[in-house]
Design brief:
Neuraminidase, alpha+beta, F-box_dom, five-stranded mixed sheet, four-stranded antiparallel sheet, 2 domains, F-box-like_dom_sf, KIB1-4_b-propeller, F-box domain-containing protein
């Protein structure tokens, strides 16, 4: 019998003999992973994780940039405080110093931030809270209460910043390639509606003008009107209290057609027009949230309601666990669509 500690067997030597040599010659580096595998990896990622994924190596960064639009479109819209309504995850974005500023709206995935006190050097500040791209321009010389972004379909990526007042007769704008307010040539057409659902095309040329479209009117139209353009549709949303009617413009017949069914889509609305848009359910990842209807916040911002198009009873679920929403920028809850910022991001990158 051999007592512990008295053995003359070289245990250390035995361990060395059992150690296997690993041959790394047949292993491929991370940068050479096939696109099919990278696709499987990115399907498991959220918005922030996807941006970090592009920082691993050059090959992954190229893949992330090439597929960014498709990936961002697959992400469900976030509320302005970056709360994912499908999986409950919260996102915190480190923003620059915003003391003395107010976030007035969201446009093309950018926060539109303005100085609270008007001054000679007041600025409009556009911030992408995820990529941290930003652009600052001096506030327009004329009074305004709305600022929006519009991406330009030109050979070079550009976008235009438009400031306007609801009942004003002027339309100051500036282009991304020259951050100053001007009235120079822009051939991009913008659709606009009147308070009575008249629609026209705004041409931003040296002498801006509106070309009315001969569209059949909608009888008995009441309440607020919103115009929303998607890749394939031009929509008119008529808000009457808590009810919303959605019309699609039929360009062949030049008439508004009331939508009775959204199919695989859902409409996201808020009471303050800060965020509204369609999102396709087929792009949502592993979500059991309903579709073919509209999502909106309640008046107290504690719940999100879903109204079915087929007449089923409405559903609701708590927003952020019904915790009080932080009074960041004094901004009401709104919807944030991550993919909408992609075109503007490319424009800003091309100017760096």
């Amino acid at each position: 019998m051999v007592m512990q500690g008295d053995s003359d067997i070289n245990l250390k030597g035995l361990r060395r003999k059992k150690k296997k040599m690993v041959d790394n010659r047949n292993r491929r580096p991370w940068s050479e992973l096939p696109d099919a595998l990278l696709y499987m990896i990115t399907k498991l990622l959220g918005t922030i994780d996807y941006l970090m994924f592009g920082c691993v190596c050059r090959a992954w960064r190229l893949y992330a940039v090439a597929n960014r639009q498709e990936f961002m479109a697959s992400q469900p819209p976030l509320s302005c405080c970056f709360y994912n309504i499908f999986d409950g995850r919260k996102y915190k974005a480190k923003l620059p110093n915003v003391v003395g500023k107010i976030c007035c709206r969201i446009s093309y995935g950018y926060l539109v931030v303005e100085d609270q006190i008007d001054a000679v050097n007041s600025q409009i500040w556009l911030i992408n809270p995820f990529t941290r791209h930003e652009l600052r321009v001096l506030s327009p010389p004329l009074e305004h209460n709305r600022v929006i972004l519009a991406s330009l379909e030109t050979p070079l990526s550009k976008f235009v910043i438009i400031a306007f007042r609801r009942y004003g007769s002027y339309l100051p704008f500036c282009r991304s390639t020259y951050a100053d307010w001007t009235h120079s040539v822009y051939k991009r057409k913008l659709y606009a509606i009147t308070t009575r659902a008249g629609i026209g095309v705004v041409n931003l040329n040296s002498c801006p003008y509106v070309t009315p479209l001969e569209v059949k009117s909608i009888p008995n139209l009441k309440g607020g009107l919103w115009l929303r353009g998607t890749d394939e549709q031009l929509l008119l949303i008529n808000a009457i209290g808590n009810n919303h009617e959605v019309y699609e413009l039929n360009l062949l017949k030049m008439e508004w057609v009331k939508m009775q069914n959204f199919g695989d889509q859902a409409l996201f609305l808020d009471y303050y027009e800060g965020g509204l848009g369609f999102s396709n359910k087929t792009r949502w990842k592993d979500s059991e949230r309903p579709f073919n209807g509209r999502y909106c916040f309640d008046r107290d911002n504690t719940d999100i309601w879903f109204h079915f198009m087929d007449g089923r009873p409405d559903q609701s679920f708590p927003f952020m666990g019904r915790k009080c929403m932080p009074n960041t920028f004094r901004f009401k809850p709104s919807w944030y669509f991550p993919h909408e910022s992609c075109n503007v991001d490319l424009s800003l990158k091309s100017q760096d």
